[in-house]
Every structure is written in structure tokens, then in C-alpha cells.
Amino acid sequence: MGNALRFLYGKCCKPTTAGDSDSLGPPYTTTASGVSALAHDLFNFEITSQVPEGLSQHVVSSRKAQAKWYGKLLQAWREAKPPPKTPEEVARLIIQTLSRHQKADVEGLLEFYGLPYPSTPVEIFSEGPTKLPEGVEFEMHTLPVDGSTVPDGDGINVYVNTADPRESSSVPRDVLLAAVRRSKARAKKNYARADELRQKIIELGYQVINIQNEEILARKYRIRLRGIDAPENSMPYGKEAKQELVKLVNGKCLRVLVYGEDRYGRCVADVYCNGIFVQEIMLKKGLAWHYAAYDQRIELATWEKEARAKRIGLWASSNPEKPWEWRKDRREGR
What highest taxon heads this organism's lineage (predicted)? Predict the structure, then answer.
């Protein structure tokens, strides 16, 4: 378990009444106690996989769904840097982590712990730029990423809901027709026909994704992380780079700022995950080079330099091979 959560539990989560138990159930009258109560319940969930008994009185989803929330919240708390400490920070973490869940469940969970619900909409990704930087062609917010589809340490395959205003007006008619016909085929239990139509949708660059028992028609995008070049999968530290990227994005909704398209049809983009700049993490962990030939940002060069100085990741080697030179050698048959 994350040290921050363990510390908060140890400092704050002590029974205060005779009725207190291992799983704190009733709503909390002060937001301060709500912070420690959630930490306590996450600690308890990690050990027992059980959610608080009284929670079902405040939310609409099943106990099974609640367990999934606590698993996501536990992971988000572990990965938060710095860890949340105030009621506002904890409320924000809950809203960000459960952004794709029913509003009634999110509000019920906040109410259960006595945490504040913002009066204005909260951006899902707080640490990215508040306004689009110069050169950004468009911005998109993805559905949760399937980590198994991440190809390497500097590429991500993502899907965007076609209900998004930018997407809704450009969905090909063939895709819409196939989606409607597939739905009808499934209603008639003609699953062979439904599978044929799903394959057609995929071939056209779209996908039908099931999220919380709701089928969503989504468009596929291939993303190339802007400004970095990770070792290829068969190079030293290639597998580690891919694993780190999977760990960062798996199951997460991403904020993607697209600057253009490369010769392979991929969107060249900056990617933010729960407020974390993905390229920064890859560089600081020594799992990617700053791709200076295509990106002159000083901060990227600084993060690579710091990793080099600490001999982290691929910089543990005295003379690691550059991935662009590795690719060139193979193209030329060396």
C-alpha cells in the first residue's frame, strides 16, 4: 500500500466511538474526518476487498460496482503526487477517478464521506495547460485506455466517444448504419451477424466499447508521444519503457493535445493522465530520449539530463544506442 495512505490511516483513522468498526459506515459530519475515513476504508479494502456497509444507502450502483470504485480509488491515491490531504483534494481525486461513472454515485460517495462537491465543473486533468499552447491543432479526451493495446514506449492507441461534439459531426454514414444494424442483430440474438458488423466498424477506424454496461461508439486514434523517443521493444529497456507507459495509462482517460500528424498517420501529441504529463515521467525515469531533432523544448532536455546524471533506466549504460540510429541501421540492413 502507498506510504501516504498508510501514514494518513495511522495518524487519523482511529475509532472515536464505541460503534466504530473496521469499515466506517455512516456519513461523516465533518470533512476532515471524511478524509481520514476514506483513507481508513481504502486501507481496509486493500486487506479485505470489502466496501463500507452503509454506502449502498447513498449510491445507486451495486456492491460489485462499488468494489471496482474502491479499487480505482486505491490505485489513484497510491499514484497521486503529492498525495491528497485536504477535503477539497480528496473530493477532486474522487471526481477525477470516477469521472466516467454515474453522477448520482459520485455525489453519493462524496456525501457519504462528508466531502465537498464543487459548485462549478471540475476539469478532469488539472495539471495540464489551462489554455491550449501555440501549435495545438485540437484537443481530445479519451475513453479509458486498454493497456494491452499500447504498442511501445512512445505510442498509445486510444478511443474517443463519438458523442463528443468534435466527433459527432464527422462519423461516416457507413459506421452509423453498421452500428444501428449491429444493435438490431444483437436484439434478435443474431450474434454472427452482429460480429460481422462489429468487424466492419473496426475496419472503418471505429469500435463499439462497453463501459458500465453501456455500449459506446468510439473513434480510434493512434498517438505518438511528442518530443520523446523510447527504445524499440527489442532494444535494451524497450520492454521496460512499454511497461511503464502501460502502467501510466491503463484504464485511464487521457487528455490529448494534438500538434499534427506523422508520416504513419499517428497524431503527434502531448498526453496528460490524471494531471500527470506522460512524457515527463518517461524522461525522468530514464525510459526515453528527448527527441531533440523534432522538439526543442528546454524542459524535455532538462528532464533527460537529470535522468542521465542519476544513471536511471537506460542511462545505467555508459553508451546506450539511440533508437533513431537503431531504426536507421535496420532500414539499411546493417
Answer: Eukaryota
Distances (CA, A) of 250 to 48, 253, 280, 312: 24, 9, 17, 23
Q: Where are the alpha helices (DSSP H) in 49-190?
A: 63-79, 87-97, 103-112, 165-168, 173-187
Catalytically annotated residues: 224, 232, 266
Q: What type of residue is 70?
A: Y
| 40 vs 261: CA distance, rounded Å | 46
Q: Where are the beta strands (DSSP E) in 1-43?
A: none
Looking at residue 145, what DSSP letter applies?
B
Q: What is the DSSP string of 188-256?
A: TT-HHHHHHHHHHHHHTTEEEEEETTEEEEEEEEEEEETTEEPPPTTSTTHHHHHHHHHHHHBT--EEE
How many CA atoms are closer than 13 Å to the CA of 137, on its beta-carbon side?
A: 7
Backbone φ, ψ for residue 74 (5° rounding): -60, -45
Secondary structure of 253-280 in HEC code, one letter for each residue? CEEEEEEEECCCCCEEEEEEECCEEHHH
The tally of CA atoms less than 13 A away on the side-chain side of residue 130 is 1
156: its cell numbers? 498509445
Q: Which helix (H) or strand (E) holds 3?
A: helix 3-12
Which residues are registered as beta bridge partners of 222? Answer: 157
Q: Tens digits of per-residue pLDDT, 52-111?
A: 988 888 888 888 889 998 999 988 888 887 778 788 788 888 888 887 777 778 888 888
For the beta carbon of residue 230, count every other beta carbon within 10 angstroms. Answer: 26
State the Cα–Cα distance between residues 164 and 162, nearest whole angstrom: 5
Could you tell me the three cell numbers for 295?
Answer: 522538439
The predicted model scores a pTM of 0.62
pLDDT in tens, 227-268: 999 999 999 999 999 999 999 999 999 999 999 999 999 999
Angstrom distance (rounded) from CA 185 to CA 12 = 55
